[in-house]
Amino acid sequence: MRRIIVIAGLVALLAGPAAADRLQVVCTLTDLGWLAERVGGPEVEVTVLCPGEYDPHFLPARPSLARKLGKADLLCYNGLELEVGWLPVLMDKARNSRIRPGQHGDLDCAQALETVLEVPEGEVSRAEGDVHPYGNPHYLLDPRNGLRVARLMADRMAQLRPGSADRFRARARELARELTPRIEAWRTSAAPVRERPLIRYTKQWEYLADWLGLELMGAIEHRPGIAPSPRHVDQVVRQARAAGVRELIAAPWNHLDAAAKAAERMDATLVVLPAAVGSVDGAEGYAAMFDVIIGRLVAGAHD
Ligand SMILES: [Zn+2]
């Protein structure tokens, strides 16, 4: 028995600080969770609210999620109102003063961005659907933004746990060293996809396209959250056929039946891409997600 206790103690030592001492980090999205784990290492314990296979625009605000928020020392969220449908509700229920806006425990990861795409001009009307009034929030689909977020997380974790500051910052640098050559390589291997424009099911892929130099032509569901009219779909199909589009890209949670029908009419391949870490098999990590995205895009371009 004593030996078992000694071994358990050793394992705990190797695993880093005791659970109670770890910084409790709650992330809204799986991508952020992956980044927080890489940066935080054994000094943090990471909990993710929205599983990879869920559409983050529409996560049900369950009481169990509020309880997770209640324990957070640090909340990392995407921002740009991606989580506006459920995070404020959970925050109200959680009553956790450490993560209130303005506290050190509140981290809007969009602060890391240099550029926000598609910031609407003029007033935003609800008739246009569930548009994002501060611009397109899907910036984590550009891995350069992931690295920016990792640096921001390191700085904030350092503020909250000054004793581990060097380790957090060193891990963020290490991640950048690891991903930077791959970011180059992914862009290079996407060359065949740059030859023809792409149609997308929803407006989720703008940062990905911006990074890879892809041309996006139209969106089937052009008003987010509102089913497209048959007339609009006809128009996109006509456009796509005229341009020789080969691929229609969609997220796993889009209406894939409708997407498949539209792709068939375009004579294009429906390519389902992981829009989040863990949203499809093989995309369990942030880097693995880009392997899958590039692999599927390139395969679709040759079909
Ligand atoms: Zn969106």
Describe this structure in words.
This protein is α/β, with parallel strands linked by helices and 303 residues long. 44% of the residues lie in helices and 11% in strands. It is built from ten helices and eight strands. The strands form two sheets. A four-stranded parallel beta sheet has the order 2-1-3-4, with helices on one face. A four-stranded parallel beta sheet has the order 6-5-7-8, with helices on both faces. Strand 7 (247-250), helix 9 (256-266) and strand 8 form a beta-alpha-beta unit. It is globular. The chain starts with a helix and ends with a helix. The chain binds zinc ion (ZN). Zinc ion (ZN) binds at residues 57, 132, 137-138, 204, 224.
Estimated radius of gyration: 21 Å
**What is the overall pLDDT average?**
93
Q: Predict the CATH topology of the largest domain.
A: Rossmann fold
CATH class of the largest domain: Alpha Beta
Number of helices: 10
In N-to-C order, the SSE pattern is HEHEHEHEHHEHEHEHEH
- What portion of the residues fall into strands of 2 or more residues? 5-15%
The N- and C-terminal alpha carbons lie at a distance of: 62 Å
Largest sheet: 4 strands, parallel
The CATH architecture classification of the largest domain is: 3-Layer(aba) Sandwich
Structural class of the helix and strand makeup?
alpha/beta
Order of strands in the sheet with most strands:
2-1-3-4
The CATH homologous superfamily name of the largest domain equals: Nitrogenase molybdenum iron protein domain
**Count of individual domains:** 2
Q: Give the number of DSSP strands.
A: 8
Based on CA inertia axes, which overall geometry fits?
A: globular
Poorly predicted runs are: none
